[in-house]
Amino acid sequence: MNTSSNKSAFIANPFYIFISVLLGTITVIGFRDLWLTDARTSAMMLGALFLFQISLFWSNIRDFQTLHWWFFYYPAQLVLIVVMVNLPYTSDIHLTILGSSVLCLIGESLGLWGNTRRALYLGIFLFLFILVMVYLKVGTGGVWIAISNLLVNGGFIVLLMVMFNQQLIERQKAVELAESLESANAKLAAYNAKIETLTLQNERQRMARELHDTLAQGVAGLVLQLEAVKAHLASNRPERAAAIVEQSIARARSTLEESRAAIDDLRAVAVNVTDAVRDQVERFKQSTGVVCELELSVTNNQLSAETTNHALNILSESLTNIARHAQATNVKVSFFIQNKTLELEVRDNGKGFDVKQEAKGHYGLVGMHERARLIGGMLSIESGANGTCVQFILGGEA
Question: Which bin fits 293, alpha (ψ -120 to 50), beta or left (φ > 0)?
Fold first, then answer.
């Protein structure tokens, strides 16, 4: 606990008011004693010394933390006590002045420094000082009676002050603990808000990916199929056009189903990976008429439904990009799963594109990289004049 809080908590104005009243009352009694015995010069001296002593007490509120002040304050107080005690009283008021003044100094030290070693050492010194003074004033015969009275009266006050200090220390600890808890609660609230914001942001990104991979890809596929229908009708091939229309209807229903599942966060369900890959490749061939070679092997699949769904979406986005942009005449898809290892490669002989430039504005490519990152896989895209290769690896070399 720092000394500034000690001063304000333990001392403050009420304590010094009490000291002023107590020592003032005793001084008035001593002043009357001296005045009535015609020791008026001593009486005036006692009054002046008392005023100087009280001014020192009050000044100590401001300067008690200054080291050089200590070397003036405590010697000055002791000199004042010695002079005041040795004035020519006719009663035992000098012992009262001695005991009260020293006890006020001890109480002040406890108030300023709390239950610390500094206050303990100062208290021991002041107690030895009072022993010497009592011995010098009353001699061997009455020293034990005087000391006993001081111990009974002063000891109770000192003990009370020590207990009071301890209570205030515990109270200060409770206040500090409450402040720490309040600070921790504020930090926790800030962390919760941050987590909530990040969760919302992640959820928005997830929904953007899901809707892109369902609605955008589904609608893009339907557009390609409808264009194929238009071409077959223009070429007077109604049977072929009707077959593609049936496929388009099935695809529209599938897209609607997947979109609803994405919104309900129910996409991570077990699927037959082999059938899903074949269906995607078949739809691609039917929609585009592009030759697509498939190498497919699924052995002892130990991957989660979420992982395989992300891989299937990467495959779907790759085929959609080829259909829309590549102008390819040949595509090769390789899809392998063995235990916890997955390898996917989609290669075409299209016109290629600038990977770095397209990745900045093409959400489909961004979504593919995000899906790979979410499941701990490695996605690489290479493109040039001879075509494009998308490769996704999970486990094994990844």
Answer: beta
- Is residue 337 one of the residues assigned to a domain? yes
In a domain, 325, yes or no: yes
pTM for this one? 0.42
DSSP code, position 341 = E
How many structural domains compose the chain? 2
Q: Write out the residue range of the structural domain in which residue 32 sits.
A: 3-181
Among residues 181, 200, 220, which one ends one of the domains? 181
Q: Given this model, what pLDDT does residue 165 score?
A: 59
* Overall average pLDDT of the 284-292 stretch: 86
Among 253, 243, 252, CA closest to 221:
252
The answer as to whether 217 is a domain residue is: no
Q: What is the pLDDT of residues 235-282, one digit of tens each?
A: 777 877 777 777 777 777 776 666 666 555 544 456 789 998 998 898
Query: From CA 77, how far away is CA 60, in angstroms rounded?
Result: 11
The number of angstroms, rounded, from the C-alpha of 235 to the middle of its chain's C-alpha atoms is 70
Distant-in-sequence, close-in-space partners of 137: CB < 8 Å, separation ≥ 6: 85, 94, 95, 98, 146
Strands (E), the chain: 291-299, 330-338, 341-348, 378-384, 387-394
Q: Domain check: are 285 and 160 in the same one?
A: no
Quick one: 175 and 276 in the same domain? no
Angle in degrees, CA 219, 225, 231, rounded to 5: 140
Residue 209 lies in a domain: no
Judge whether 241 and 233 are in contact, CB under 8 Å.
yes
- CA-nearest of 79, 90, 82, 85 to 36 is 90
